[in-house]
Structure formats: structure tokens, C-alpha cells
Amino acid sequence: MADGASGDAFVAFERVQKSYDGETLVVKDLNLSMPKGEFLTMLGPSGSGKTTCLMMLAGFETATHGEIKLDGISINNIPPHKRGIGMVFQNYALFPHMTVAENLSFPLEVRKIGKADREKKVKHALDMVQMGAFGGRRPAQLSGGQQQRIALARALVFEPELVLMDEPLGALDKQLREHMQFEITNLAHQLGITVVYVTHDQTEALTMSDRVAVFNDGRIQQLAPPDALYEKPQNSFVAQFIGENNTLEGVVTAMKGDTCEVKLDSGEMLDATPVNVSEVGERTRVSIRPERVEFNKDRLKEGAHTLKAEVLEFIYMGDIFRTRLRVAGNDDFVIKTRNAPDQVRLEPGSQIEIGWLPEDCRALDAG
Ligand SMILES: Nc1ncnc2c1ncn2[C@@H]1O[C@H](COP(=O)(O)OP(=O)(O)O)[C@@H](O)[C@H]1O
Ligand SMILES: [Mg+2]
Question: Of the ranges 55-69, 78-92, 104-118, 239-253, which one carries the lowest mean pLDDT score?
């Protein structure tokens, strides 16, 4: 199924647009469909429209145009509490005057669930996040990580099929954040719930998700599993936004099916895979990941174009070596090599030749 088609999708956005002021569109043309049980992350810079999309799905904002469907049914006119969606926000939003157990009981009361049933579900949800002993405390008596766990339990307590999370780990320190990333994905898969997760942290997006939707300027730039996003970016925004990336600018001089030839602005030639260039004479930005650059000529294909490079800086990082080069007038060309017993440590000041396989070098739009 194409990315945009909704078919038997569990969650679907169809040609959704959103304007807050009636003039500018902050969500421009959103088409997205998710199967049940998927963990999908919306990743993008601040202001790119992620929270707005989540709020429309939750029902706290209305779409200006287009349709949002849940399990095949349009939910545009269904109020938030009837959508059966759990939500977790960055600032926890726990009620400070209620105990933990009362916080969890609240969404059940709203749904008119009886007392005995409520107590059972609250206990179960607290056990799920390993907070069974904390039901009597107030939020202020908990650490940030514990509060976040309670917020998660509260989103899960009424057993929603869909849970939305908006930067839920943003306030936690690195170690706790990584631990919670692991807990959230585990729990989601165990319970078989569908999750839409929002973050601006690419590592979080890559490590947690089945698929990632990269947002910029109110549009999805690419929607793909983490490995495809990193290895096969479809445009120069995605190539720049995800992971470390070297870019060289030039003009397409020949199209040869699977490969194209690019003349860099510095005058040198290279081979690349045409991604979103199609014509000779078109300007392009070629993109090469630091770990795909080769300076051992034996490992390159016969006849492959190579570029001259000057070593500017060698940084020992333990597991890897990070070397900065001057390549085709670019002083920020980085290569990464694994610290293996036979690996060469490049000397600053030395002149080398570098190359790569054309499939690792992607000719993208000029940005
Ligand atoms: N309630 C609102 N009223 C008016 N403009 C808003 C509102 N919420 C968000 N915006 C604007 O919409 C754009 C997208 O915001 P948002 O969806 O919060 O992005 P993100 O979550 O990706 O940072 C931004 O330009 C923001 O200023
Ligand atoms: Mg946001």
C-alpha cells in the first residue's frame, strides 16, 4: 500500500491541513496511514507541526481541511474523551492535589467505570510501570522519572488501543531517558497498542520506532523505517536532519541509469546514485555518510572516481576514530573508522585519496 492510502488502516490522516489564523497553514498536506500495533514517531524541528497533528488526532484541535479516521471511521466530530485515546505529555500534567491512585482513577471515573473495577485497573496499571507501592503518594513526592511513569500508567489505565505521546521524556536526564525509551517500547509491544510518539530527538526516534515520519514546515518529508531513513534519505533535508552527513555541491553532468556523474563546484568529478535529480545540468547536493568513506584504494571498484583530501584533524574517540578532512573546498568533511587493530590513524597534514561506492553517495536536491 502506498504511504498515503488509508485502506484498512487503524489511524489515517487524509489530506489534512491546519491553520490557526485562517492564513498560514502550519500543517500543509498530511497523508499518513498506520496499521494497528505500529509504533510511529513524528520527528522534526520545533515548529514543524508535530504537536498540532497530535492535537488533531486527540481531538483538542480541529482540522481546517481533510479527514482523520480511526479504525476506518471519521473522528472529526467525535469529542476527545470518546475517542478512546490515551495521552502522555512532556510536563506530565498530573493533578497535584490528588494521590497517584486518584490520578489514575480519574480517567476511569470519567468513563463511568465502577469502583471495584477501577481499583483493579489502577493496581494493574501501577504494577505495569513498577510503581505498585506508590499509589498513596502525591506527585510532588515523586522524582521526575517516577512522575513520568505515573503519567504513562494514567494513559494506559483505561486500556486504550491508541496512545499519543508528545516529547514525554524531554525533561528527564540522559540515563533515565534511555531507560524509559526501552520501557515504553517494550510495554507498547507487549500490550499490542498503537503509538504515535512525538520527539525532536533523532536517536530516540530511530531506536524506538517501527517507522518515523520526518516533519519539516508542515509536511512529511519522508516516512520510513529507521534504517531506510538513515541509509536512503529521499531529499537533502532528511539527509541533513538524520545522523551525520557530508555534503558536496555540484552539477549533474551525465545520467547513466543507476548512477550519475557529478561535477563538483571545485571542478572534481564523482559518481553518485541519482535520488531526486533527473537531468543533466541540474544542481545537486551529494550526500555521503562518514562511515561509508573509503581511503583504502583496494576496497574501491576499479575505475571509481576518487577525490584528493587533506587530513585536518584526527580525533580518538575510543571505539571509533573521527577524522576531519578538507575535500573539494569543504573543511568539514568527516570520516569515521572503527578502532580495529589494523586501522590506520591518519596524520594531520597528510594528503590522501578518498572514494566510496556510488550507492553510498546520493545525489539529492540542491536544498
Ligand atoms: N494554539 C496555537 N495558536 C496559533 N499558532 C499555533 C498554536 N499552536 C501552534 N502554533 C503554531 O503552529 C506551528 C506548528 O507548531 P507545533 O505543532 O507546536 O510544532 P512542533 O510540535 O513541531 O514544535 C508553529 O508555527 C506554532 O507557532
Ligand atoms: Mg511540539
Answer: 78-92
